[in-house]
Amino acid sequence: MSAKEFTLDQLKATLLEGAGTDESVDLNGDILDTSFEDLGYESLAMLETVGRIEREYGISLDEEAVGEAATPRALVRLVNDHLSAVKTA
Known about the structure:
56% of the residues lie in helices and 0% in strands. It contains 4 helices and no strands. It has helices at residues 8-19, 43-57, 63-68, 72-88. Helix 1 (8-19) crosses helix 2. It is globular and about 40 Å long. The chain starts with 7 loop residues before the first helix and ends with a helix.
């Protein structure tokens, strides 16, 4: 699937589909700069989420870069940077 842009809403949907959410976490709040750990998403949940993104968008994200993307803002930016690079290649 090709997309112009990966959005926060798409990330939230992918997180919910793959790992659910802790009932104490409100993904509808201002979460852009909240760490995934503080949102209740541990490494296994993030692996599942990234795997779903890669399959859905037909991309492969660098593991080290994914590990450094500790917030929703950083992960959305990483995915969009990769999608832009693929489109221009």
